[in-house]
Amino acid sequence: MLTRDVTKQKIVEAELKQHKEHLEELVKQKSNEVVTISGLYQKIFNHTSDAIAIISADFRLVEANPALQRMLGETDEKLYSGHIFDSIPATYHTIIKNSVELLFSGKSINPLEIEIQNKNGIKIPVELSANIIDYNNSAALLSIIRDISDRREMEKMILLTTIEAEERERRRLAADLHDDIGPLLASLKMYVSVLQQRLLNTSNSEVLDIIQNLIKSSIENVRTISNNISPHLIERFGLIPAVKAEIENIKMLVPVDFTTNASNYKFDKQVEIIIYRIIKELFNNTLKYAKAKRISLNINYHKYKLYLKYSDNGLGFDLATTVLDKKSGHGLPNIDNRIKSINGNYSIETSHGNGFIFILDVPVNLR
To answer: Which of helix, strand or coil describes residue 264?
Structure first.
């Protein structure tokens, strides 16, 4: 009996030893895999051209790869001692905070196109992708920051080409209306005038008066449509007279306080047309959404830069939500694209109940 018990114990010990050796081999194998994966991650982290940043919940940088340091041109000490918003223009702060809140609430977000600013003050367009990770037992933000300067330049060239083609087509349509439809209506007006002379004080004179008024309205409408398609005042007189004419068109709907020091200047035609269309878009937004009682517009020229400030005292809106919502109807993406095409910088200040302020500066040449 005793012999049999010892034998069983030996067998169990042998099996335990075998299992122990097997487990040790598995642990060793998995440790090697972890080391390999860790080394591969470290290699990617250190050598990728995309900047990688791990950011705490309070927007402090806790780890960054060499690409981010090169992008910002900062030392390690400066990089880790500051706040991440120190390198991001204020225009994007609200959008980023709202996006991060969505991530921490378990939702996903699309990559953001923003700008970051290096230590020399140069703004770099980047695409920002982010996910929530566990870092040292705390939730953190893993951000991949890709320089899209080349892509932006290509987009700018495409956009400028598109705008030029669009303006050519606008000019052609405006010319067709002015040169073809305009003369026909003018001739018709003359023939009706002749008939009015012949049928004066007859039963038909009242009908002819109505026709004459309809023709007059049609001529005015053709002139207005032609100018909206391609503003003739910009072609002949420059930006400021075209803006003043637009203010005349809306002054019965909402008064506009307009000031400028640029009345005697004419600028690059393409820049003038783009700024004119931006102002029209801003007027349209105020009339459509803001319920404002007054608009203020200031355009100043100083040292080859054009400065524009537009504000209304209307309802305002949530800027971050509107920018992220491409179907908001405010036309902000369109304004943004047009400004980028002429190397402009702009900022927007607005919130519910606090009106709207739009500030723009654009490099310009005189013509």
So the answer is: coil
pLDDT category, 294, cuts 50, 70, 90? very high
For residues 37, 43, 44 and 45, what is the CA-based torsion angle, rounded to 10 degrees?
A: 100
CB environment 5-16: b (16+ within 10 A), e (fewer): eeeeeeeeeeee
3-state secondary structure of 109: coil
pLDDT of residue 33: 54
Separation CA 349–CA 317 (nearest Å): 10
Strand 356-363 with 51-55, pairing: unpaired
Nearest CA to 132 among 144, 143, 148?
Answer: 143
* pLDDT score recorded for residue 184: 75
Is pTM, for the whole model, over 0.70? no
What is the Cα–Cα distance from 216 to 136, expressed in whole angstroms? Answer: 77
CB 254 within 8 A of CB 295: yes
- Kind plus residue range of the DSSP H or E element containing 39: helix 2-47
Q: Which residue, 254, 253, 248, 251, is CA-closest to 227?
A: 248
d(Cα 213, Cα 223) in Å, to the nearest integer?
15
- Region for residue 238 given its phi and psi (left: phi exceeds 0; alpha: psi -120 to 50; beta: otherwise): left
**Which pLDDT score is estimated for 35?**
47
Give Cα separations from 266 to 132, 336, 357 (angstroms): 51, 23, 25
Burial label, 24 (beta-carbon count in 10 A; 0-12, 13-18, 19+): exposed
Q: Give 282's contacts (C-beta < 8 A, 6+ positions apart).
A: 310, 335, 358
Report how far residue 247's alpha carbon sits from residue 264's, in angstroms, rounded to the nearest whole number.
18
* pLDDT tens per residue across span 323-361: 655 555 567 878 888 888 888 989 899 988 999 999 999
Q: What is the dihedral of CA 163, 166, 171, 177, to 10 degrees?
A: -150
The answer to whether 174 and 232 are in contact (CB under 8 A) is: yes
Cα–Cα distance for residue pair 279/162, rounded to 1 Å = 20
- Give the DSSP H/E element, type plus range, for residue 339: helix 332-341
Tokens representing 306 are 């054009």
